[in-house]
Amino acid sequence: MATFHLEIVTPEALIFQAEVKGVIVPGIEGELGILPQHVGLMTQIVPGELRIQQEGKELRMAVGEGFLEVRPDRVSIMTEMAIDEAEIDEHAAEKAVALAEKELKDQTLSHEEIALVQSSLLRALAKLRVKRRHHN
User: How many angstroms separate the CA atoms of 102 and 18, rounded?
Assistant: First the structure.
């Protein structure tokens, strides 16, 4: 079966780079599946579960906001966060959710502070969904 080159980049590092059979990305309008020879596009991604199909296995990651670019020679995902399922600390993610929910109740937050807390909450929830979806 045909493959394509996938790279996942965060501001800190190149997180993933390999030839893959497909990838499913949490897009702004729902999940988006990319297979070899997909039409070129660029779209926004949202916090959620990213699934990578490789030869005989599927890798899962929690990703944050970012962009997906499909080009003839490669697929690039540029995101603020990309964490492999095995590296997710479920307890820390639960604490982050609780803290964000508590902070959102603070009536003195500015619009910018609310946006930052909501973004943090969405990333923590994405981590929990990825970690729990395949272990329960």
Answer: 40
What's the distance, CA 110 to chain centroid? 27
* Tens of pLDDT, residues 88-133: 888 898 898 898 888 888 788 888 888 888 888 888 888 888 888 8
The model's pTM is 0.85
How far is residue 105 from each of residues 92, 95, 100, 115, 121, measured CA to CA in Å? 20, 16, 9, 13, 13
The DSSP string of 29-69 is: TEEEEE-TTPPPEEEEE-SEEEEEEETTEEEEEEE-SEEEE
Contact criterion met (CB below 8 Å) for 38 and 22: no
Q: What share of the chain is helix, strand, coil (3-state, %, to 5)?
A: 30, 45, 25
Task: Using CA atoms of 116, 34, 49, 85 in order, give the dihedral in degrees to the nearest 10.
Answer: -120
Pairing assessment for the beta strands 30-34 and 4-9 based on DSSP bridges? unpaired
Beta bridge partners of 5: 19
- Residue 122: helix, strand or coil by DSSP? helix
By CB atoms closer than 10 A (0-12, 13-18, 19+), residue 125 is middle
